[in-house]
Structure formats: C-alpha cells, structure tokens
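User: Can you write out an input/output pair for a complex, sequences first and structure second?

Assistant: Here is one pair. Inputs:
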Amino acid sequence: MLDMSKTAPGADDAITTDALIIGAGPVGLFTVFELGLLDIRAHLIDILPKVGGQCAELYPEKPIYDIPGFPIVTGQGLVDNLMQQIEPFHPTFHLGEMVEGVETLGTPEAPLFKVTTDAGKTFMAKTVLIAAGGGSFQPKKPPIPGIDDYDGSSVFYAVRRMEDFRDRSILIVGGGDSALDWTLNLQPIAKRVTLMHRRDEFRAAPHSVEQMRALVAEGKMDLVLGQVTGLKGEGGNLAGAVCRANDNSTFEVACDRMLPFFGLTMKLGPIADWGLNLAENLIPVDTEKFETSMPGIFAVGDINTYPGKLKLILSGFHEGALAAQKVHRYVYPEKKLLFQYTTSSSSLQKKLGVNA
Amino acid sequence: MPKITFIDHTGEARTVEGETGATVMETAIRHGVPGIDAECGGACACATCHVYVDDAWLAATGTPSSMEEDMLDFAFDVRPNSRLSCQIRVTAEVDGLVVSTPERQA
Ligand SMILES: Cc1cc2nc3c(=O)[nH]c(=O)nc-3n(C[C@H](O)[C@H](O)[C@H](O)COP(=O)(O)OP(=O)(O)OC[C@H]3O[C@@H](n4cnc5c(N)ncnc54)[C@H](O)[C@@H]3O)c2cc1C
Ligand code: FES
C-alpha cells in the first residue's frame, strides 16, 4: 500500500480511497455495485442530505417504466432497491457536502487525486468517478430585481447558524416543508417572523401547518398571502420587501432578513473548475471506459456526453459497469480481471454475501 | 391541427400548429419556441414551463390539478391565469389558444 500521507504533504487527516464517486444519484449508487464486484470500495459525496439524486429529490412518487426488469418502479422505490443492492459493499456516504476541488497529484499511469469538500474534508483517491447528473442541486433564486445585492448579508437560501437570525424581523417565503420548518424553528428567537405564500394552501406536513396557524391565531407571527416583487434597503442591508397581493394591490413587509424557499435546481457548479474538457456543461468521455480527458477521472450518467448519448438511468448503469473495469486496472495493476457472472461465480457470490 | 400562439415577454408572437393529444409544452419545444425550458420533460416536476393563459381561453383550458398547484409554488410571478404548459393538452377545443411566457423560468 502506498502511504498517502507521505506522497501528499499536509494531507494527514485525508480519507484515502481507491474510488471516490461524486454524486449519489442512481448512477453513482449502481457504480458502487459494479466496483464492489471487482473488490473496489467506494466513498460517495453528495450535496443533498439524502441519496438518490433526481429520482429522490425531483420525482420520488412518480413511476418509472423503463428500468429493465421493472415494469414499474417509483423514483424512491428504485433508490431504495439500489441501496439494498449495494449494501454488501459497505459504501461510505458523505452527504450534505459539495465537492469543490479536484487536484491531480499522480501520473497518468498511477493516478492520484486530492479531492476537497465545502465541509473541509480531504480525500486522497486513486480514481474519481463523476456521477454528478445535471450538476449539484442548489436553491432556486427568485428573479426579484436587485436580490443578489443582499445575497449572504440579508437574503439567505439556507439557515447555517440559527443565531444569525436572533432578534431579526424575518420574512420567509414559500409553502413547503423548508419554509414551514424554518418558520417554526426561528419564530421563538426572532423579533418577528412573517411567512409569505402565494396561496392559503401548503404542501408542507399537515402538523407543521397546524402549528403555524396556531402561532398566527395567538398573534405570535404573521401569515401573508402574496409574492415579493421588489426589495428595499441599502448596502446589502434589507429594510423591507415590496409585495403584490393576489388582488394585485401592493403592500410592504418590513424585514431585515429574507429566506426564500422555491425548491432546488441543478447547476453545474464547481465541476467547471477541475480542468476537465467540457462540452456545453457536459463532460466528454470515450465509450469504452467512460474516462474523461484526465486519466483516472471517469464520468458516468447524465453528466457525460458521447455520440449517441441518452440521458437515461439504464445508460448510466451500463457506463458504470464499463468504467469499473478500467478503474480496476488503476487500483490493481498487477491483477488480471476475469469476466464472471453473478449467477454462477462462487467468488462473486461470496462478495455479495449470498450462498453459493 | 390546432393552432397555438405563444407571446414572449417582449410581446413577440409566434403561432405554431400543435398535434392533438400532445401538450402545449411539447408543442413549444418541438417548434423551438423560446421562453419555455421544460427541464423535467413534462413530468410536472420543475415548473420551468410556466405560461400565462390568455383570459379568453381560461374556460377552455380548465383549472390546474392540486399537483400542478403545488408545483406552481416553485414558479415566479405566479398570477391567477398561471399554468404549467406541460399540463395543458392540445385538443380541438383549444384551437387558437394564446399563452404568454414569463421573462424568466427559473
Ligand atoms: C421528472 C423526471 C422524470 C424522469 N423519468 C425518467 C425515466 O422514466 N427513465 C429514465 O431512465 N430517466 C428518467 N429521468 C432522468 C433520470 O432521473 C436521470 O437520468 C438520472 O437521475 C441520472 O442519474 P445520475 O446519477 O447520473 O445523476 P442525478 O440523479 O442527477 O444525481 C447527481 C447527484 O450528484 C450531485 N452532485 C453534483 N455535483 C456535485 C458536487 N460538486 N458535489 C457533490 N454532489 C454533487 C447532485 O446533488 C445529485 O444528487 C427523469 C428525470 C426527471 C427529472
Ligand atoms: S416541464 Fe417540468 S413542470 Fe412542466
């Protein structure tokens, strides 16, 4: 074994791994399986707090009809099955973290990468598999004129430290679980919380909606129906929001903090800074190994492109299987790879923990 | 085939022929009409196919389902005549339909 701490000075607390998968969508998850069959253990990183990528975040309840062997399976159902399928290979998940940097330390023949996340973790990986789909999920920013001037000073899309909101007049916009949860969590410490939604119906969990309505009835917070159309303030310090009611009248809400919750959208994110060749925000790969312009870095699933590419889950599964073969050559340069079936190979069955 | 007119945020109108049974979103994408992103491909999961239905056509296009209303929460500048165009079917009844697209989808 290579002593990573010696080859990479200053990276003593780094997590070393043979394969690092960026993105825990369906393709990243199934790649764990294909790597596992070849004795390669993987770590996965995803910016979302949960696994499953688009299937889990965008359409957990909706049916998918084109997964081979499953006439019908929901987005979440597929993710649950994949998690069960990769269980024998004990992947390590790092959720709620975004990969920011990928740095090349090795050589094309013996690649080694230093990968860093926004949570301050460092990985030393022999191979990197980018399964980043449509990019990292990030909060949608409402197209309110001038909103960027307040970004990070008065307007926030997530609550990192509740203390930053103590004694503030907070305007929370939205009608889902994030909006309701933060309304209930911040209400006790805020000077005043106003929840604004475009209609008097909420997608959030019914008991949070009840709690919110009770607080409104007790006069402890405000619920306002309408939409924010403009912001008032100076130098990044928000003073109020200009709003439109559903009858088209205009009104203002005084506030010095705003938290808009309009769901998530996928943005390419830091991948653009890793020195890879890109083609219209996608990563070109070959169709033999699904390797990128950098030896040792692979791209599988929605994030890659090649002639004839289809952004389908089944294509991503195939890509992961082929990429794993080349990963094996980097991880075990001395070992010869035998082609085997899970049905009949006792060695594969042993890895899977099933009876031979 | 039913005709559908899309008016973009600058006021430019484009009239195209829709296929009966397709959706208004699909009609826009097939004809390269700008202003509709349709990131989720019509699964009512992205709200980037938001349009405003011309008042004269509100009755013919019907009202949004509760799933569509939930997804409209993710759109911006939502008005009483807001719809997600992947949820409006092209039928003979909507021949002549006029919809406007917002300045930004997401
Ligand atoms: C509504 C809808 C319906 C669909 N229906 C079908 C269907 O019927 N059949 C079908 O085959 N496909 C369907 N698809 C497409 C399918 O969901 C995608 O092809 C699939 O999710 C791609 O998987 P993936 O693992 O490549 O990427 P994704 O599912 O996009 O997952 C990528 C993950 O990587 C993470 N990530 C990205 N960058 C970073 C970073 N820098 N750091 C950390 N994490 C990062 C993201 O947060 C995300 O969770 C549908 C898509 C949608 C939206
Ligand atoms: S295309 Fe995504 S909601 Fe209509």
